[in-house]
């Protein structure tokens, strides 16, 4: 359990970092694609070295790769319409709650009553993020993104548990998602912008691609040792980092209030850890 906790916390820092890079990009859809493409390219040697995930995990990889197209679309639109200090905590925290409930119902991940109480505290903290003046578009896209996050987390948890190497599964997923995003982008006539953005921003994409692939791969290693609700919720301690980044780095007006909400979420996360 200690290993799963450390892996999830490291993933939280990496995850907040690559999301901030998307938010601060001029062309967020291109930035999101560039991150997945760079992550897939940079981590491809891992697949060559350790081998592709077991065949039993392939259907889950394919399904998750396709769902990530919806995830990226929702994430980009949420960041376009609203503050980072709202969209990021709401989508990530909501995704953790969806994954926790789904894991208990669909994957037989047993959780104690105290763990469910801790998740309720997290839910209250997330609810307090929604204040007057919040754009409906931002709220709607962040909520949709949360549902998608919960969905692919469950799919990937099931897939990672069907292979001997969770890290390899995470790398393979980045490759599948990059292929799916590239196919959709090319169908939309984005081939030219893809080439241009790689030429101009490849160092940025290289860093964020490392963060993206590393973050989720660590999570998929962690869920082999602990319930998905525990790992997913602990990983979402990144909501505090997101609120803080919106306040200090982006100067968002409501970010200080959202820090309080994020701290409530953190209390729930600490309580969740204490129940293990």
List keywords for this structure.
276 residues, globular, mainly alpha
Characterization of the model:
With 276 residues, the chain is mainly α. It has one domain. Helix 4 runs antiparallel to helix 9. It is globular.
Helices and strands in order:
Layout: H1 2-23, H2 28-50, H3 58-81, H4 84-106, H5 113-127, H6 136-160, H7 166-187, H8 191-222, H9 228-235, H10 238-248, H11 255-274
Helix pairs in contact: 1-2, 1-8, 1-9, 1-10, 2-3, 2-7, 2-8, 3-6, 3-7, 4-5, 4-6, 4-9, 4-10, 4-11, 5-11, 7-8, 10-11
How would you briefly describe this protein structure?
The protein has eleven helices and no strands. The chain is an all-alpha fold and 276 residues long. The chain has one domain (2-274).
* N-end to C-end Cα span: 8 Å
Number of helices in the DSSP assignment? 11
Radius of gyration: 18 Å
* Major beta-sheet overview: none
- Structural class computed from helices and strand pairing: mainly alpha
Shape: globular
**Which percent bin holds the helix content?**
over 70%
Q: What is the strand content?
A: under 5%
Average pLDDT, all residues: 86
| Low-pLDDT residue spans | none
Order of helices and strands: HHHHHHHHHHH
């Amino acid at each position: 359990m200690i290993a799963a906790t450390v892996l999830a916390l490291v993933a939280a820092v990496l995850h907040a970092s690559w999301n901030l890079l998307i938010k601060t990009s001029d062309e967020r859809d291109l930035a999101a694609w560039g991150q997945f493409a760079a992550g897939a390219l940079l981590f491809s040697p891992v697949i060559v070295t350790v081998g592709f995930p077991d065949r039993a995990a392939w259907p889950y990889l394919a399904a998750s790769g396709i769902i990530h197209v919806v995830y990226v679309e929702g994430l980009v639109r949420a960041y376009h319409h609203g503050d980072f200090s709202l969209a990021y905590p709401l989508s990530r925290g909501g995704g953790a709650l969806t994954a926790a409930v789904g894991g208990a119902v669909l994957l037989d991940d047993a959780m104690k009553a105290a763990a469910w109480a801790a998740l309720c505290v997290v839910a209250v903290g997330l609810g307090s993020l929604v204040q007057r003046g919040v754009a409906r578009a931002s709220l709607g896209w962040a909520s949709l993104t949360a549902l998608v996050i919960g969905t692919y987390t469950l799919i990937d948890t099931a897939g990672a548990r069907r292979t001997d190497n969770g890290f390899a599964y995470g790398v393979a997923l980045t490759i599948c998602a990059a292929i799916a995003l590239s196919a959709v982008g090319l169908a939309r006539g984005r081939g030219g912008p893809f080439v241009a953005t790689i030429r101009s921003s490849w160092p940025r994409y290289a860093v964020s691609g490392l963060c993206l692939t590393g973050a989720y791969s660590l999570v998929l290693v962690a869920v082999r040792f602990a319930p998905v609700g525990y790992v997913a919720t602990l990983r979402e301690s990144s909501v505090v980092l997101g609120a803080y980044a919106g306040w200090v780095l982006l100067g968002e007006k409501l970010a200080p209030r959202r820090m309080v909400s994020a701290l409530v979420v953190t209390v729930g996360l600490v309580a969740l850890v204490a129940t293990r």
